[in-house]
């Protein structure tokens, strides 16, 4: 198959520039409750991913940890992905501008954000079974992410806020949040009216 492949730091930078071009302003800070956000805007859209577990609160939101290894690309030009139905481990590699990304894992309820060296070795070994030249490739980075999974799937729902504001939830995208981002955003925007 030929499919779109995103390099996330590049993609997030592009989204940020789109937001700014549309007149949006990005401000980074921790929100401790929706009332805090509602004090500044009549409509609050909650896209807090794993943060929704404590903020909503929604105990159905849980992490599914994913670990990756980035290596200098030894000449791989095509992506590869293979699921093993007998385990939570998937074997994949994606050529990206910054190197060859090797994966992966899907560890439910695992909050560790530090890379595990044994997991990293296992990822490299699995990928090298498919493309032996990966075994000798120099490791340039380790990455760990927590997928914001939710029992019952994505929650896109509106509710009134005390004081007259509107709260629109859009969280729980698990391992497919990039794939479904535009559709979920459109569904959430429809609830804003
Ligand atoms: C290894 C790995 C591989 C993946 N591969 C794919 C793939 O191939 N395709 C795909 O579609 N998806 C993939 N995903 C999943 C995808 O990354 C997620 O589904 C997506 O990032 C979820 O987006 P989100 O905006 O809902 O949540 P997040 O990206 O988690 O963003 C939530 C944001 O809210 C912020 N936040 C939380 N609480 C608060 C608070 N109280 N105050 C202020 N800010 C707060 C957080 O800091 C964060 O910036 C992968 C994930 C991992 C880890």
**Gap from first CA to last CA:** 38 Å
Number of helical elements: 5
User: Helix proportion of residues, in percent?
Assistant: 25-40%
Shape: elongated
Series of H and E elements:
HHEHEEEEEHEEEH
Name the beta content range: 25-35%
Derived from helix and strand composition plus strand pairing, the structural class reads alpha+beta
Task: Please compute the radius of gyration using only Cα atoms.
Answer: 19 Å
The pLDDT mean sits at: 95
Weakly predicted, low-confidence segments? none
Q: Please give the number of β-strands.
A: 9
Main sheet properties: 6 strands, antiparallel
Bound molecules: flavin-adenine dinucleotide
Q: What is the topology?
A:
Elements: H1 8-21, H2 34-38, E1 43-46, H3 52-55, E2 61-71, E3 80-83, E4 90-96, E5 99-103, E6 107-108, H4 117-130, E7 139-150, E8 155-160, E9 166-171, H5 181-192
Parallel strand pairs: 1-9
Antiparallel strand pairs: 2-5, 2-6, 2-7, 3-4, 4-5, 8-9
The protein binds flavin-adenine dinucleotide.
Walk me through the structure.
25% of the residues lie in helices and 30% in strands. With 193 residues, it is an alpha+beta fold. The strands form two sheets. Strands 2, 3, 4, 5, 6 and 7 form a six-stranded antiparallel beta sheet that branches. Strands 1-9-8 form a three-stranded mixed beta sheet. A hairpin with a 6-residue loop joins strand 3 (80-83) and strand 4. The longest helix has 14 residues, at 8-21. The mean pLDDT is 95. Residues 30-31, 47-51, 55, 66, 68, 104, 145, 147-148, 171, 173-179 line the site of flavin-adenine dinucleotide (FAD).
């Amino acid at each position: 198959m030929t499919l779109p492949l995103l390099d996330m730091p590049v993609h997030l930078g592009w989204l940020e520039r789109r937001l700014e071009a549309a007149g949006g302003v990005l401000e980074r800070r921790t929100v401790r409750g929706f009332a805090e956000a509602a004090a500044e805007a009549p409509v609050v859209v909650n896209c807090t991913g794993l943060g929704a577990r404590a903020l909503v609160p929604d105990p159905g939101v849980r992490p599914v940890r994913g670990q990756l290894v980035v290596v200098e690309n030894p000449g791989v030009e095509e992506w590869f992905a293979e699921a093993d139905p007998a385990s939570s481990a998937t074997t994949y590699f994606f050529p990206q501008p910054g190197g060859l990304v090797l994966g992966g894992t899907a560890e439910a309820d695992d909050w560790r954000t530090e890379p595990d060296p044994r997991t990293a070795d296992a990822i490299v070994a699995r990928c090298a079974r498919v493309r032996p030249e990966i075994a000798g490739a120099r490791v340039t980075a380790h990455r760990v992410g927590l997928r914001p999974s939710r029992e019952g799937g994505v929650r896109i729902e509106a509710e009134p806020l005390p004081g007259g504001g509107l709260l629109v939830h859009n969280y729980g995208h698990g391992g497919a949040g990039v794939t479904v981002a535009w559709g979920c955003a459109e569904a959430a925007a429809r609830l804003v009216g």
